[in-house]
Structure formats: structure tokens, C-alpha cells
Design a protein that fits this description.
This protein is mainly β and about 280 residues long. The chain has one domain: Neuraminidase. The chain has strands at about 10, 20-25, 30-35, 40-45, 50-55, 60-65, 70-75, 80, 90-95, 105-110, 115-120, 125-130, 140-145, 150-155, 160-165, 170-175, 180-185, 190-195, 200-205, 210, 220-225, 230-235, 240-245, 260. The strands form 6 sheets. A 4-stranded antiparallel β-sheet has the order 1-24-23-22, with no helix packed on it. Strand 14 and strand 15 form a beta hairpin. The radius of gyration is 17 Å and the shape is globular. The termini are far apart. The relative contact order is 0.18.
């Protein structure tokens, strides 16, 4: 199914400085996302385009639904409970590592574990990709990371896909953190795996989403009418709607908007982390 820039719909008037981490909530039929630079948590009704937001205690770089309801957020080197009503953040776990390396994107994998990585802006590859179990035991899955960005797992939870924005690489990890596939992608950011196992990657700066097969062979590319695409997810009826977040860019009228389209493939419900706290 061919999708052009003209096929995307803009959801309402919301314009984020740095929109990230769109997550669909099936119960409320709403899309949730964060504006990292604006330090806001947004709830968006895709049928009306209406957005409501709260200011968070701290900049939130990732949003993860919890089993039984509620949210986890990621901020600094902490993973914690995030109150969607007032933006209050309560740390539950501080991950070890250099204090100048903040955590970034995160996802609950379909194996039940939480995956979260950090960014080394010095480009010395000191960042890590962590796996956190429901009891909050944790370990480093992969080291010597540049800028840990999008993470998601295969439909059966056996593969973890991870974007490193500084090395322009998306890697698939199998058992025991073993790299099994890899592909070069220009400035990869957010990732979403669809119901067929296809891996969608937002390419920052290119206005493009790339889809790869489960073994990371190139499949197709979709143009989005904003250059700084940041993340991608699925939602809506049957998870047939794709949602794409973007960041502000000078001279790009729709930059910072949230876009949606039917791209001819369904996604999967987000996994919920059953944190034992």
C-alpha cells in the first residue's frame, strides 16, 4: 500500500517542541505522548483532535503503561511512577551509570521485561542498554552505546530491536543479548513493531519512516510532511492507525504535529509492565 505525504492527517492543533513516545490506551481510546522539551504529558483524542496536557515535575523521556493501570515514566537516571493527573513523578529505580548520561527511550517488551537505554552526548560510547525485570532486578544488555533511542520487541518477545542514533544502526538482539541482525539507518529514532513482525523506524531529519522485515531487510519507506520524525506507534480500531510524533523545525509548517494514517498493516497493543511495587 503506497502512502504519500498527502495521505497523512494532522491530529488537532497540538504542536510539540519535541514530541515522543506515543502510546495508545484502548480503554479510553486516547493517544498519550510526551513533549520532552516542553515537559508536558499530553492526552489526544484522535476523533476530535482535542488535546489536554499536564506539566510534569521533571522532563519525561519515555512513557510505559503499567499492568493494572497507570504509567511509568523515565527521567534522568530514574524509572518511576508518573501521575497523569498532575504530572508528579515518583522514582522507583535509579539505574547505575555515569551521572552525566541520562536515560532516554523505553518499552515494556512482549516478554514482560522493561528495556531502557541511555545517551552519551560526548560521543564516547559510554551509554548502555538495560533490561529491567518486574521485581526491578536489572542488568546491562548491551554496552558501548552511543545514543540509545527506539526499542521494541518482536510479536513473540524473542527479539529486541534497538536504535543507536549516533552509530546510525538498528540492531536485533536475541537470547542473552546476542546481536543477530543489524542494519544501517540514517539517524534512527523511535521504533514500532507491527503485527507481522515488521520493524518501523523513524529517521530523524529525513521526514521518513522506514519499514524492515523481521530480519532487518529493507521493505518500504513512507514520507511524512515534517522533517524531524521522532517516534511511531499503532492504535485505533484494530490497531490499524499509525501515529507519528515529530519535533519543531524552523520553516516546516507542520513540524511538532502528530500525524496519523492507515498504512495497510496493523500494529499490536502496547505491553504493560507488571512492576512489583
Amino acid at each position: 500500500m503506497a502512502v504519500t505525504a498527502e495521505d497523512w492527517s494532522v491530529l488537532g492543533d497540538l504542536r510539540c517542541e519535541l514530541g515522543e513516545c506515543p502510546v495508545w490506551d484502548e480503554t479510553s481510546a486516547r493517544l498519550h505522548l510526551v513533549d520532552i522539551s516542553g515537559q508536558r504529558l499530553w492526552t489526544l483524542d484522535p476523533t476530535t483532535g482535542t488535546a489536554s496536557g499536564v506539566t510534569c515535575d521533571r522532563p519525561i523521556t519515555a512513557l510505559v503503561p503499567r499492568a493494572g493501570g497507570g504509567w511509568l515514566g523515565v527521567s534522568g537516571r530514574d524509572v518511576g511512577a508518573l501521575d497523569p493527573d498532575n504530572g508528579a513523578f515518583q522514582p522507583l529505580l535509579s539505574l547505575p551509570g555515569p551521572s552525566d548520561l541520562a536515560l532516554n527511550d523505553a518499552v515494556c517488551g512482549r516478554d514482560g521485561n522493561l528495556y531502557v537505554g541511555s545517551i552519551d552526548h560526548s560521543r564516547a560510547a559510554r551509554a548502555d542498554l538495560y533490561v529491567v525485570e518486574p521485581d526491578l532486578n536489572h542488568q546491562v544488555l548491551a554496552g558501548h552505546v552511543g545514543a540509545s533511542n527506539g526499542v521494541d520487541t518482536s510479536p513473540d518477545g524473542r527479539l529486541l530491536y534497538h536504535a543507536d542514533s549516533f552509530t546510525d544502526t538498528v540492531t536485533a538482539y536475541g537470547q542473552h543479548g546476542r546481536s543477530v541482525y543489524a542494519v544501517r539507518v540514517a539517524h534512527p529514532d523511535g521504533i514500532a513493531v507491527d503485527a507481522d513482525g515488521g520493524v518501523w523506524v523513524a529517521s530523524w531529519g529525513s521526514g521518513t519512516l522506514f519499514r524492515y522485515t523481521p530480519d532487518l531487510a529493507p521493505d518500504r519507506a513512507l514520507c511524512v510532511p515534517a522533517p524531524l520524525v521522532t517516534s511511531v506507534s499503532f492504535g485505533g480500531p484494530g490497531y490499524r492507525w499509525m501515529f507519528v510524533t515529530t519535533a519543531r523545525s524552523d520553516g516546516a509548517e507542520l513540524s511538532g504535529a502528530v500525524f496519523t494514517a492507515d498504512v495497510g498493516v496493523a500494529g499490536l497493543p502496547p505491553a504493560r509492565f507488571a512492576v512489583q511495587q
